[in-house]
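Structure (tokenized):
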């Protein structure tokens, strides 16, 4: 038993050493990767077949054994005819785009490529369905995201946005572009407001006799600062800037959803999908899957996705996480 314990201890140390090396290599690899242009591939997937299979299975399960066998044969003939381009095959296309936005909205780069792909082939008979999830973030990033979705409308396409979890602040700004917004019952929407916050270390620096100098040209080049002494004049100017952005945000929402009582909803508050429909912030309470299933016979549905290639650092990080998880389980068993 002592021998086994020694071997186990050696393995634990070896795994920790290897994990540490992988982390160091990953950090170096990520630093190198940042210097390269982002590369990826565009993927187009036919969702119609998947959705039809789901619908068919549900319908068949609701029948008795005899009717199920008869209906199954009928469905097989219909699907074969559709695969060959039968006359009952929908002519309209629905392009599905997923957008999961983070604070810095870096996902807009992939969204741009996806929008470009749709615009290259879409006609005015087609439509776009955006499954959007975001709690908001930087103004310029989400403003650009909204502009990308606006390109779809400018092209004459019908745009739908679906929110299963959250579309708040900048996320809701993007959602407003849609002709129709669909939200799950307990999805969070709204937060039509602006926030900015930063710490100030001036008193700590002063206490430790550390001088901080900041030179600017222009009265309001810098209003609030991390290290200098902030003034009431600077605070007021900073707040005025926030109020100006909020005013533009409100105008943007009002322009795209004129039926909304903007003064009532532009308070920074959030609402669930069930509450939001009463405030006219959304048009329908429904999940994205349910909405797509109802359109499976109306459109040929395609998922459009631009996937960035994962760098060496990210791949090593995944392997390191898996290794550490295995190590944790091993240690738990050893000492259990």
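Design, position by position:
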């Amino acid at each position: 038993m002592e021998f086994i314990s020694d071997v186990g201890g050696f393995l634990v140390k070896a795994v920790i050493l290897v994990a540490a090396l992988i982390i160091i290599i990953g950090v170096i690899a990520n630093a190198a990767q940042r210097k390269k242009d982002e590369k990826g591939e565009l993927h187009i997937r036919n969702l119609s077949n998947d959705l039809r299979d789901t619908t068919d299975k549900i319908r068949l399960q609701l029948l008795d054994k005899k009717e199920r066998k008869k209906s199954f044969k009928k469905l097989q003939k219909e699907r074969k005819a559709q695969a060959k381009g039968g006359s009952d095959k929908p002519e309209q296309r629905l392009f599905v785009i997923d957008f999961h936005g983070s604070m810095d909205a870096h996902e807009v780069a992939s969204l741009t490529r996806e929008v470009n792909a749709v615009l290259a082939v879409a006609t005015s008979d087609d439509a776009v369905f955006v499954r959007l999830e975001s709690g908001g973030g930087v103004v310029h990033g989400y403003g650009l995201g909204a502009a990308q979705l606006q390109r779809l409308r400018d092209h004459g396409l019908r745009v739908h946005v679906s929110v299963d979890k959250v579309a708040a602040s900048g996320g809701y700004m993007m959602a407003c572009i849609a002709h129709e917004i669909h939200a799950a019952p307990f999805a969070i929407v709204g937060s039509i407001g602006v926030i900015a916050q930063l710490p100030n270390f001036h008193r700590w620096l002063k206490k430790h006799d550390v001088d901080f100098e900041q030179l600017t040209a222009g009265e309001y080049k810098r209003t609030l600062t991390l290290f200098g002494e902030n003034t009431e004049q600077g605070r007021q100017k900073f707040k005025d800037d926030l109020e100006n952005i909020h005013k533009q945000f409100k105008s943007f929402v009002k322009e795209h959803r004129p039926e909304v009582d903007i003064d009532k909803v532009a308070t920074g508050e959030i609402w669930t999908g069930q509450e939001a429909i009463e405030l006219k912030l959304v048009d329908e309470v429904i999940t994205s899957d349910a909405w797509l299933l109802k359109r499976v016979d109306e459109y040929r549905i395609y998922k459009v996705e631009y996937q960035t290639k994962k760098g060496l650092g990210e791949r090593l990080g995944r392997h390191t996480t898996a290794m550490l998880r295995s190590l944790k389980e091993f240690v738990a068993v050893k000492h259990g």
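Reviewer-requested clarification: The beta strands are 40-46, 93-100, 127-133, 158-163, 166-168, 180-183, 188-190, 270-272, 284-285, 300-308. The first helix runs from residue 2 to 34.
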